[in-house]
Design goal:
mainly alpha
Length: 96
Amino acid sequence: MEIDPSSSEPLHEQVAAAVRRAIADGEVLSGERLPPARDLAAVLGVNEFRRGRGVTVSGIGPERSAVVAKARELVALARRCGYRPEELAEIIAQLS
């Protein structure tokens, strides 16, 4: 997972996106526990986690995984084309 501390995107959102990518890519499986937040934060060089009972990956089906992968492609394309997340959300809402 890669985190960019100089990005305008908050660290917790970058971490969440990286974890979602790992899940969608099959690097983390349903029911598998993620490393403790302290360990994950140390590896990523951040400290944005809250205390709790750990994090467990919930099951997502292959269809959702495919949708998530395509959504990531769309978000990446939109960023390259200069669209802000709010603009992309507006476009998607208009299509619904």
